[in-house]
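Entry 0007
Protein: Adenylate/guanylate cyclase domain-containing protein
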Amino acid sequence: MAALLKRHWARILVTLLPVAAMAAFVVAPSRPMLDSLDFGIYDWRLRLTAPHTFDPRIVIVDIDDMSLQAVGQWPWGRDTMARLTHELMDRQKAAALGFDMVFPEEDRSSGLNSLRELADGPLSDNAALKAQLESLTPALDNDGNFARAMHHHRVALGYYLTQSGTPLTKGTLPQPQLKSTDFPAGRIYATQWNGFGGNIAPLAVAASAAGFINAYISSRSDGLLRLAPLLAYFGGEHGQDGYYESLGLAVYRLATATEQITPRFAPTNDKAPPLQALVLGSGPTATTVPVDQISRMLVPYRGAGGATGGSFQYVSAIDVLSGGLRPGDLSGKIVLVGTTAPGLQDLRATPMSATFPGVEVHANVISALLDRRFVSLPDYARGFELAVLLVAGLLLAFVMSALPLLRASMFFLLVFLAVIAFNTWLFLAQGLVLPLASALVTMLLAFGANMGWGYLVEARARRGLANLFGTYVPRPLVEKMLESPRNYSMRAESKELTVMFCDMRGFTRISEQLPPVALQSFLNELFSRLTEIISRHGGTVDKYMGDCVMAFWGAPVPSDDHATSAVAAALEMAEAVKHLRIADQDTEVNVGIGLNTGVMSVGDMGSLVRRSYTVVGDAVNLAARLESLGPAYGVAIVASEQTMQRSRGFESRPRAGSRPPAERDHLHPVGLEPRRGKGWASVNRPSCMK
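Output (structure tokens):
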């Protein structure tokens, strides 16, 4: 780790910059861009994973355009609503009925109030009128008829809540389902309202339950209805402070005979602990509904909305009123009365559709409660988001910085897909809606920063390295160096290397006999063949000097068997030049090669005008002298004893015969040539010198 930091600290730091910036952004109170991205991801997954199946338990009686044309424009008389209720509850035997509408004013369409004013006013002395009025009252009292139709049936009415500087109240508000004392003091665990629009008293008393029909759309969101409040807090007067249930929850409780609602809080020591869920009912059959801190649940929509959406059965209200259904067709089903008529403005924008019937939102809530099919945004979501962001960012910063481009890209793709897969698994298997956008954006930015730094800075170093070594280092070695350019520098250092000098015998005589063009062609072919052999054995060509080639092994790419590679190259070079011919002459070409292994200085050396990567030192000079000893010993290759000790797979013996006196005390040369079939061996006199 320390070596990685030392070598790639700049690249790691650049990669971590977007991680740190996003971490600060994640914990900010307001983050509209991230929230918008997370909303988009949630909506896409919701549409993709919705069951898209039909729920036969819930039926929507639709006050559609056809019904309005047949009965008349809205609002309908309460006598019509009474007939609708009788049909659904008495003839169809529905399990529960919910009206997604409010009846805040008396129905005066029958004229009963006008007749009463006459009987109590100008015609107050007309006893016959009063008697006739008494007999007509039951038939003309539309509100009373509607109330009697609901009596002793499981019917829930809707109402709405308001929030304004001056509280406005109208109609009757039911009793709250939960008191303020059922929750810890110090905070409100639901959306707070101070006004309402309720139903008139006769209807409110006759109904078994009532629920608010408000939809919650955050002012900071994109206007789509994703959350449905199950509870709302009303802070009014006259003992009505408390928590009120939604219409969907009220109808569900009627249909399932669920009485008890119990809030469940996170196990903390806080005076006002976070709200985790609402428990409906008690015992093993209780339903635990995950909610957020203001008692809202994410609506797990079944599919597309509307009569053609395929999620719920839609029945036109006129078909019910006209007796078009057979008795018992809706037996045991939960019925919601609502409208899809565009003029009545009960269409909502949801993740499933831009025009989603409001009554079907309640239907989806009830369906989810019946199936116990929930998705939730847990209270630890922000901490989870930060943890994933940091882990993924740190992993990418350290690992990508140590890998070449292709493998770094593959690693990024692996981490990117792994984060998506883990988040999706939590959504599908655990029903957890956890933020994903910040991690994805951070990973993309980190990848871009890492690759950008690699291209702008390290690619420049790679290009410089390739330009420096590409002409005299084998291409495979250059490619290996480019994987970690920081490991290779021009700085001189002392290393044990093996150096070679290769000189052509009799070059002066040959050059005098050949014209310049022929000589040039011959030297090009000779150096090309020798250089190809040196490169194939991993050597570095140092320079060409007239008819001499200088090369070394073990730098710039370290090698443990540099002596072995050098000896193998020398033997192949000695054999390869025999097949060269000079300008159509039948003359055999011979070379002399000197090899030595020792400690020498290697690096980028030269003047301000011209520099090269080369080796210098006594060990280099010794190799040059060994090359010149070949004719004295009658061999093509002369290697120092240290070279043969470092090499493997070769046999050698000191050369017999006389040596120049100046060399006897410190040189132990050996002669080498190829031996067919069994590797290499030393001989008394190689064939190239015969």
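Curator remark: The two ends are 60 Å apart (CA to CA). Confidence is low (pLDDT under 50) at residues 656-668, 673-690.
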